[in-house]
Structure formats: C-alpha cells, structure tokens
TrEMBL record:
InterPro entries: Rossmann-like_a/b/a_fold, Universal_stress_UspA, UspA. This is Universal stress protein. Transmembrane segments: none annotated. Keywords: Cytoplasm. Pfam families: Usp. One of its GO terms (cellular component) is cytoplasm. It is found in: Cytoplasm.
Amino acid sequence: MINIVLPVDFGDKTDQLVDGAIKFAKQLNGRIYLIHVAPSDIGFAIGDMGFQYFPEVEANEIREELVQLNKIEQRIISHDIDCEHLLKQGLAKETILEFAKAKNADYIVMGSHGRSGIYDVFVGSLTKGLTKSSHVPVLVLPIHD
C-alpha cells in the first residue's frame, strides 16, 4: 500500500486539498496520514505585563483543531481510504518531514495557491521548503479560486 502524508492547515482551501488527496489515494490504493502542525506559541500573548502564557487558550485551540482533524479523517475514511491523524506542535517543515519518515511515506501531498515573488520573501512557502528538503516526492496540487 502507498503511504501518503497530507499536511492540513484548516485554511479556506483545505477541502480542495483533501479532495485531491482522496482522488490520488484512490488511484494508487493509498493510505493517508493526515497531519496538522500547530505553532508552539498558541497560548502566548503580549499584554501590559509583557509576554504572558495562557494555557487555557492553548488547550482550547488544540481541542478545536483536533475536532477539525477528526472530521477530515472521517471524511477520508468515508471514501474507503485508510487514514490516521496526528496533531503536533512545532515547526511545520521539520515536523512534517519527521512524520513522513516515521510513516515511511511514498508521497507528501501539498497545495499551492500560486503565490510567488515578494509574498514568498516575507511569508515563505511551506510547499517550496518541503520540495527542497524532502527525500520523498512532493505532489503539489494547484489550489485556486
């Protein structure tokens, strides 16, 4: 069976990305390993007293993201595709690459909004970073309006 790692960010194009990954997995008789990487600083805020950590904010955010991840997993399973998920805090590129290695991934499926140039300079591109660093093929699906 082909192992496919599918990172999701719960953005407005996530449904399109998941649809593409489902189609790809069906064509290859693949299994999808779903991952969401949450930032490590979710519970931090800057206030009058400087940086403050609010563990309840972090816990609530993680809980909401797990609910979203479970919904996507169930959607994938409803298409008769094996799926399991992981939510982890950390740096996205490194965490995804470690997960892909641990799951013996044959592919990583990512979306691309088609942005380039100055946007990449200031924001960066996770997809671009993964294609440069990954030891397994990265399938980039065009995600446009």
